[in-house]
Design a protein that fits this description.
- By secondary structure, this protein is mostly beta strands.
- A 13-stranded antiparallel β-sheet has the order 10-11-12-13-14-15-16-17-18-19-20-21-22. The protein has a five-stranded mixed β-sheet with strand order 3-8-9-6-7.
Length: about 550
């Protein structure tokens, strides 16, 4: 018999929660906000931030369509709201909207995460908040001596389980039964060597007793490592933190290589009693590459299929069926994928008077991706056309400038918190691509596209969008029991219709506490805060 008793944690109600353009105590919240702190994030050792959040937030659905290292997951907070548009939530990193890959972020620098779910919570982000909002806060330095930390992780990876397929004997019986029932084969017609139950290519290996489990070629066991070195500390006036991390994850599928380097630095300087400035920077460099084998084709291959031809290259159709090509046919291609992400975020905070402050924040994010692939004569695709090359370049630039005026004060039993915002944002993308076939040799790979002699294709693209926003939010509480939140945001965007360039997104939330402080404290083990909640939002 194991007796478990939960202890009350009334202090949790006094903790501050990031709610967007400010913080609130948990007990004062009127909207639906879920918080994941550093302790919960560190419960998992995975190098992907979103993997650490699986099962931690009710209503947050994280799905993975591509399990390759460094791949992005799909996030849903408020379900499928659109059939053609995006259903992904808005990501806000240190107060600035972030459109980069979450796989680029080192989980070890994240201090907490808040998920805004209901209309009242997300209305402060207007049109972009309709699918929910995820707020990420990075770690900052604290007062004290310099503290150096090293985190290292080493591991072996292998597939958790393989897909069960037919063995050699099962496969032969299956083919015999299929032809017996479908084509009426009998006698010698069902013999694997002299009949027609298997293809001519399969008969070669069957006669020599050669079998193959194709998943042995697709999957592999790999060694992974993840290192991080950080330093943090500060004085009354200056707090700082910096870290460097390196991740090497080859992946359990052949050629699914992934390497990532993260450099992070943050400094906050208090110049005097009324002026504070801060700067946060991140740099990410990731590398991957290699054409991966086709798993579907691997599990559908015959155990007697031919892997290599007489020249030692990959045999194009191991079973002589064009719809089941060799899953490894292009793994020798020369492919390189690189990505760089530079994020700079600075702020100035001015305390004008007691309870009144002004904060101006500017964030800049530059992202570049490059992908080059060359199918040489040692690949099935390249051998047919004397080499095929393709390159793609994409440059993304985002900047956001936000100005927030905040007033927070208490008058007897009345508490008021007013936030006003003016924001400007621009996003821009420039892209180009080129492909061609028939090269003199394979030496230059995709680095000399001018060597292509046929099927030359070139394309480019450019787009830009701008947004300007105004927002006001009022939080009022009486005697810490009755609370109301009124929010209104107006967004003007270049992507809106010609005759409707602005949209207005209001919301209201009411909450009142049932029972006194002693009642809440005595029952906090099964409730965070007992409230009747009513919220409305037009987003």
């Amino acid at each position: 018999v194991v007796n478990v008793q939960m202890e009350p944690d009334a202090q949790a109600l006094e903790e501050s929660v990031v709610v967007g353009y400010g913080t609130q105590r948990k007990k004062d919240l009127t909207g639906g906000v879920a918080v994941v702190d550093e302790e919960v994030l560190n419960m998992s050792s995975t190098s992907n931030l979103m993997d650490r959040l699986v099962g931690q937030v009710a209503g947050l659905t994280i799905t993975t369509s591509d399990a390759a290292p460094g791949s992005n997951q799909s996030l849903l907070i408020r379900g499928q709201n659109s059939l053609s548009g995006s259903n992904s939530p808005l990501i806000v990193l240190d107060g600035i909207p972030y459109d980069g890959s979450l796989a680029d972020i080192d989980p070890n620098i994240i201090e907490s995460m808040s998920v805004l779910k209901d209309a009242s919570s997300v209305a402060i982000y207007g049109s972009r908040g309709s699918n929910g909002v995820i707020l990420l806060q990075t770690k900052k330095g604290e007062k004290g001596k310099a503290h150096v930390t090293y985190k290292g992780q080493f591991g072996l990876q292998e597939p958790m389980q393989r897909i069960q397929t037919m063995g050699p004997n099962e496969y032969i019986r299956f083919k015999q039964d299929l032809h017996r029932l479908k084509n009426g084969y009998t006698g010698v017609m069902l013999d694997p060597l002299y009949g027609s139950v298997i293809s001519a290519s399969e008969k070669v290996n069957y006669a020599n007793g050669i079998t193959r489990d194709w998943q042995d070629d697709v999957f592999r066991q790999t060694f992974t490592m993840d290192h991080q070195v950080s330093i943090s500390g500060g004085t009354d006036a200056t707090q700082y933190m910096a870290s460097v991390s390196y991740l090497d994850n080859p992946g359990v599928v052949y050629n699914s290589n992934y390497k990532r380097i993260n450099v992070y630095a943050s400094v906050t300087q208090t110049l005097n009693k009324w002026l504070q400035v801060g700067l946060t920077t991140q740099f990410v460099n990731r590398e991957s590459g290699g054409v991966t084998p086709n798993l579907e084709h691997a599990i559908k291959q015959s155990p007697y299929g031919i892997m290599y031809d007489e020249t030692g290259g990959y045999y194009e159709e191991p079973m002589d069926y064009s719809n089941f090509p060799n899953p490894m046919k292009d793994v020798n291609a020369d492919q390189k994928k690189t990505g760089r992400n530079v994020l700079v975020n600075g702020f100035i905070n001015i305390d004008i008077m007691k309870g009144l402050s002004v904060r101006s924040q500017f964030g800049y994010n530059y992202r570049n991706t490059f992908e080059g692939t060359y199918y040489g004569r040692n690949t099935v695709t390249g051998a047919k056309v004397n080499g095929r090359a393709a390159i793609n370049n994409t440059h993304n630039t985002d900047w956001t400038w936000e100005n927030v005026v905040k007033y927070d004060n208490t008058f007897g039993k009345h508490h008021i918190d007013v936030t006003a915002l003016f924001s400007m944002q621009e996003k821009k993308q420039i892209g180009s691509s080129q492909s061609g076939e028939s090269f003199v040799n394979d030496d230059s790979s995709f680095y000399m596209m001018s060597g292509a002699e046929s099927n030359i294709e070139m394309s480019s693209n450019y787009w830009k969008e701008n947004m300007i926003s105004y927002m006001a939010r009022i939080n009022y509480s009486f005697a810490e029991k009755y609370m109301i939140t009124l929010t209104g945001r107006a967004d003007g965007a270049s992507v809106f219709g010609r005759n409707n360039k602005y949209g207005f997104f209001p919301s209201a939330a009411l909450a009142w506490q049932i029972g006194d402080e002693d009642f809440i404290r005595d029952n906090v083990e099964w409730i965070d805060m007992l409230k009747l909640r009513l919220s409305y939002g037009a987003n």
